Amino acid sequence: KAIELNPQMIGAMYNIALIYTELKDFGSAEKIYQNVLDLDPNNLDSLNNLAALKQKAGEHTKALDLYRKSLKCDENNYHALYNMTGSLRALGKKSEAKEVLEKLLSFDRPDRTDHVFIYNSLGTILQDEGDRLSAITAFEKALQSDPTDPVPRYNLLYQLANVCDWKKLRLHLARSDQLGITEGVFSPFGFW
């Protein structure tokens, strides 16, 4: 109704785009985010959400362009920085993704619950680069942020097995009941 009364009502348009996104009607959401950006090219929320839709569709170059446009408006836009690391990684720009993740860790944020995701992502990049010891450190820091998160715990166990640190592996494995992983999976005598 608000849009019928005022077709340039950006707030109403944005909210409808959010509803379409929740309903997984990404095509309609994308059109409306673009309409918002036609009226307000620096609308950070629409830039970030449109970039996330492009990223979800595998259009990482377009997503990266939108995240970078968002960062021109606000260079410390936390969500744009974090989300763009996924597209950077998908495009093989792991060094740049690593720099962005390290920048995010430097932010002074009162709520650091998201550090588990940042450190886990950083650990995964380091793992892919073959820097297993640094990856282990990153996964351990992720678990310091949230000891209950099974993803960095699994990643840590996997790396500890790769470097044959059986003592540390056994210590962390004792805390991994929630994963349903048995010692045999990470044992030098187990089957991968």
Question: What coarse outline follows from CA principal-axis ratios?
Answer: elongated
What is the helical fraction, as a range of percent?
over 70%
Radius of gyration: 20 Å
Category by helix and strand content: mainly alpha
**How many helix segments?**
12
Strand content: under 5%
Detailed description of the structure:
The chain is mainly alpha-helical and 192 residues long. It has twelve helices and no strands. α5 runs antiparallel to α6 (78-90) and α8 runs antiparallel to α9. The longest helix has 14 residues, at 26-39. It starts with a helix and ends in a 6-residue tail after the last helix. The mean pLDDT is 85.
Topology overview:
Blueprint: H1 2-5, H2 10-22, H3 26-39, H4 44-56, H5 60-73, H6 78-90, H7 94-106, H8 115-128, H9 132-145, H10 150-162, H11 166-173, H12 183-186
Brief sketch in words of this structure:
The protein is mostly helical and 192 residues long. The protein has twelve helices and no strands. Helix 9 (132-145) runs antiparallel to helix 10 (150-162) and helix 10 runs antiparallel to helix 11.
Fill in the keyword field for this structure.
elongated; 192 residues; mainly alpha
